[in-house]
């Protein structure tokens, strides 16, 4: 089987399939796994969790996984008993799930091509990916618009994928010599008209080095209004907005990253989508909602459907 997308949903699905003894290949267009559980390297060994900031664990299946991660040092609590982060970056849990699995990053799948009862993968220009392999199932765990484009190109449909909606987010990664947030490791602003919705002391997370590092997420409305702005202009605007909220010292590093599909605003409302007659499926936070835990559970559900298990 092939999985397109190496975020937490794709990793959970791949891990479950491998446990069942099924061969699986995971492809992702990014330079490494993690998806929106992302960690960006900066100069002087700086690291920023510039995507998902933490995860919670409420479902028994995910709680068991998180307990295992914390026991082995893959994850740790942060800023409260219900918040967990990867150690030493948010990508750590995804990498752990993908350990020993055939992972191929930097591979952008552009087309799904029918080959009898199987599927072959191609780049957008028609060049073959996984040249010697035909897959009985292709599980799409990338954002819904990307999955929808692949389905449409193959002349297929999974009802529900087109209904998923996301809010974008511009993220500021900043290293500065000013004082840290004085009151808490995070500050949150739920005002829809705010410029910045979330500020986190990245250096307060377990296993992080480099003092004075923080991550700020712009609010959805502001991000939409500036979605196509240049990253450097966005960074400058967000630093100015940050100065209104806290003291900012001499800046050692700053960068902005655009998440076009950051947080799900409208989900499918089902654990996953799967068409056994074609072997095509879809999973991710677009199915159950904008939480790491939901994406993990969606990936598990899709793997189960691909294995022929009854829906849970």
TrEMBL record:
Pfam family, one: NAD_binding_8
Protein's name in the database: FAD-dependent oxidoreductase
Species of origin: Methylobacterium platani JCM 14648
